[in-house]
Amino acid sequence: EVQLMESGGGLEQPGGSLRLSCVASGFTFTTYNMSWVRQAPGKGLEWVSYTSLSSSTVYYADSVRGRFTVSRDKAKNSLYLQMNSLRVEDTAVYYCARVGVVGEFDSWGQGTLVTVSS
Amino acid sequence: EIVMTQSPATLSVSPGERATLSCRASQSISSNLAWYQQKPGQAPRLVIYGASTRATDIPARFSGSGSVTEFTLTITSLQSEDFAVYYCQQYYNWPLYTFGQGTKLEFK
Fold this sequence. Notes:
The complex is a heterodimer. Chain A is mainly β. Chain A contains no helices and eleven strands.
């Protein structure tokens, strides 16, 4: 069974940093591209970041480019999102998602809540 | 950026009836469209990809259609577990994905 488990969320002040983790199991992690998607309270889904199999190709939404960094560790079957210079508008549930064969997000984690507030 | 627009924002339907949800892309995305279902407090779940292919374990009462810029998700004979928010997503401009704003399917 495919499982994605996020962690690392919490309360942080504006300007602070957090590092989210997503541990993958039930599939060969190194053969899938991965993404992060977030959802602000009561709002819709927003794609945040993408990383290719080997992290050789990464992309970011305009709203986080220059502040967030995505990475992955094949030895730990893990995906990460380093979030710096946090803003109040970064408050959201952050999901990691597996990118399927044609580009769809075929599996999702349960999400981790990030709250940015003073 | 490809903008995805869903309609209606809220759809009220009775159990056993048919629901039709729409999604429009601001430019051609061929058939590079997915639909997701999200229930309160849960992660999204893939329902349809490739505009019309059901994902694993999705019941046959769910069907997707459309191409280019106009897409539809149809749910026949609605069950109680189908009431949720549905999002469309384009991956034509992969990996710069965009989602629609969602349609809430509620009990009438």
